[in-house]
Amino acid sequence: MSGVQEPLEIKFRLFDGSDIGPKKYAPATSVATLKESIIAQWPKVLLIQNSSTKWCLMTGKENGPRTVNDLKLINAGKILENNRTLADCRSPMYEFSGVTTMHVVVRPPSSERGTEKKVLSKPKENKCGCSIL
Length: 133
Known about the structure:
Elements: E1 8-13, E2 19-25, H1 31-40, E3 45-49, E4 55-59, H2 60-63, E5 71-75, E6 78-79, E7 99-106, H3 110-121
Parallel strand pairs: 1-7
Antiparallel strand pairs: 1-2, 3-4, 5-6, 5-7
């Protein structure tokens, strides 16, 4: 086997079911570079299904990722770390072959994460109206 590694063809599946790609990447490409590519190609509009059968359009730039830390990439059930390369992410049980689909998870904006922590840190109130006779 030669020392030259073939480029990997990868597409990224977004939370609304749409895809970015496929596009070819060198095995030496870092996960952070993949995330930068996703941010650059993030769709301007996403179609989201709400409860029941209501659909709404969301502007992707408002609700999309702003930095590489706002994204998580999942491949073969593993969250990929920013400092690793595609070659590092290969496992003996799973090889990249053909078009590989990686799932993209967007973290909520930091302002929403901060309010979420405040809600969780409130003490629980007992709101039970039961009477024991």
